Amino acid sequence: MGVYSSATRQGAFEPFDLQVLRGQVDGHTAIFVSGYNTSVGTTYETIWSESTVYAYLASASVMEISSSNANDTAAGTGARTVTIYGLDGGYNQINETVSLNGQTAVNTTNSFLRVLHLMVNTAGSGGAAAGTIYAGTGALTSGKPATVYAAYTADGGSTACIYTVPAGYTGYVFDFLVSSSITTANAFSSIGLYARPYGGVFDNTIQGRCANGGSFTIPLNYPIAFSEKSDIEVRALSSTAGANVTANFSILLVKNPD
Questions:
Q1: Which of these three, 97, 124, 152, is where a domain ends?
Q2: Domain limits for position 123
């Protein structure tokens, strides 16, 4: 059986973005951020599972990992282990894998300042999470913590259009894609890419509007640069409460010079 080699290794042209995705460009990492909010109201909300404006941690905290379903447990039919991806108190990238215990919280060993993503690694006979898996803090109610920082469902995964640029990197946003739907005629959604530099406040960087059932895509030939420790998220409001809004953006992390 032959050995396959890339065009780059043969000295021929290969697209730069493909080289980045293959890990062939040092200090460059491509990330796709995606989220949805099934019930956007008439005031701005973050595009994530909880239909609220996202509340960021002020200091690094131990996360409670739990599920709304008792079958998501180490020996259950649902999800068994989950990995939490995020940033520590110094905005450095960290991740940790924990074994679930159903509706009972399992504490992380690490403290997280940001929770960026949840991923189920192993599952029982059901082949997927049986309930909604949460990373959060505070008292649990039917497996849901009082304050949620990330959520994962079997049908949608970990869907939050939120990202924080790690320490030592600059993030370049290359595109912005959104869609909106609602059963009310003539309804529309106003959607924006918001960003907050470290120590600053959120500002609406890109703005757009979708009619009911509409969408828009903004390719950025000149990407928008966001400095290290910047928080980036998509927010939306609807002219009539109850809009379902989906949003995505691509960001390239480039390591800063030493």
A1: 152
A2: 61-152
Query: How is residue 113 annotated by DSSP?
Result: S
Do residues 39 and 244 make contact, with C-beta atoms less than 8 angstroms apart?
yes
Q: Do 132 and 97 sit in the same domain of this protein?
A: yes
In a domain, 240, yes or no: yes
d(CA 120, CA 70): 16
Query: Are both 190 and 246 inside the same structural domain?
Result: yes
Structural tokens at position 251:
């960001």
30-45 pLDDT tens trace: 999 999 999 999 999 9
Mean pLDDT value across residues 157-171: 96
> Domain tally for the chain?
2
Give me the mean pLDDT over the 109-126 stretch: 97
Rounded to 5°, the CA angle 131-236-208 comes to: 135
Environment class of 153 (CB within 10 Å of its CB; exposed 0-12, middle 13-18, buried 19+) = middle
Number of CB atoms found within 10 A of residue 96's CB: 15
How far, in Å, CA of 228 to CA of 198, rounded?
7
Query: Would you call 55 helix, strand, or coil by DSSP?
Result: coil
